[in-house]
Amino acid sequence: TAGRLFSAVKGAAAEGEKFPVMGVRWRSSLTLGEKEEVNNKNSEDGGNKEVVASYWGIKGEEVKKEDGTPWKWNCFRPWETYQADLTIDLKKHHVPTTFLDKLAYWTVKSLRFPTDVFFQRRYGCRAMMLEAVAAVPGMVGGMLLHCKSLRRFEHSGGWIKTLLDEAENERMHLMTFMEVSQPRWYERALVFTVQGVFFNAYFLAYLASPKLAHRVVGYLEEEAIHSYTEFLKELDKGTIENVPAPAIAIDYWRLPADSTLRDVVMVVRADEAHHRDVN
């Protein structure tokens, strides 16, 4: 796969085409309906094209919508879509009382300051960073509970799937905001760094105290709600253009076809409020 991608880049460069590295559309983000053509350098004439329709080079199972039209996404399926509950209480707050509560609360507050300084009011890229981090805790918690269930030969009470679903939901937030924001190269590099540090720190915290780890996530989600509320204010003021909602968001949250970015931020904020309550 790497060789084929390199060949495609090299071929485009030889032909004088514009091929920015940060603009490469990776196969994992392609829809099932899209086909990526790369030059097959092993062919006799060197000009044949090879069609790749999925990340692994294997054609996925054909899935259709309820109306019979083909389902075009390979990162989620129709039965995984839903309508967000916009009536959820956005102002709910768990007042820190114990030492662990206060430790979790001030840890999250201390992390907010450098984020505000770095991103300021670039809420699209800010959301990208937030979701790249927020998708980690559910996966770490689900993984550790999975291993605990195996070691103890006991059920998890449904928490493994709950946490993995949370991680998947946060990942879909990221896939959505990647369609509307154009992160710079150093912001992408920052995601690598922050995710690496946060994953290991959260892993150790969960081993030491799952309660502390979940409290951290709960307060992190409260900050996410605040950030998305500010995002909405900027959209309403016209500072940020209220562009049409990405197709992936319309299908994932079952939004009307004429939905806008503001509608997407509304449902994402509702998701964050739900994760806050769970944690």
Walk me through what this model shows.
The chain is mainly alpha-helical and about 280 residues long. The protein has a domain at about 90-279: Alternative oxidase (Ferritin), CATH 1.20.1260.140. Helices cover about 55% and strands about 5% of the residues. The chain has helices at about 1-15, 100-120, 125-150, 160-175, 185-210, 210-235, 245-250, 260-279; strands at about 35-40, 50. A two-stranded antiparallel ribbon has the order 1-2. α6 runs antiparallel to α8. The longest helix has 30 residues, at about 125-150. It starts with a helix and ends with a helix. Mean pLDDT is about 80; it is low at about 10-35 and about 35-45.
Rg is: 21 Å
The averaged pLDDT comes out at: 80
> Which stretches of 5+ consecutive residues score pLDDT under 50?
8-33, 35-47
Indicate the CATH topology of the domain at 91-278: Ferritin
Task: Please outline the major beta sheet.
Answer: 2 strands, antiparallel
Pairing-aware structural class of the strands and helices? mainly alpha
Bin the helical content. Answer: 55-70%
Please report the number of helical segments: 8
Give the overall shape: globular
User: Major sheet: order of its strands?
Assistant: 1-2
Distance between the termini: 39 Å
Task: Give the strand content.
Answer: under 5%
Secondary-structure topology with pairs:
Layout (H helix, E strand, L loop, with lengths): L1 H13 L21 E4 L9 E4 L46 H21 L3 H30 L6 H19 L7 H24 L1 H28 L9 H6 L8 H18 L1
Antiparallel strand pairs: 1-2
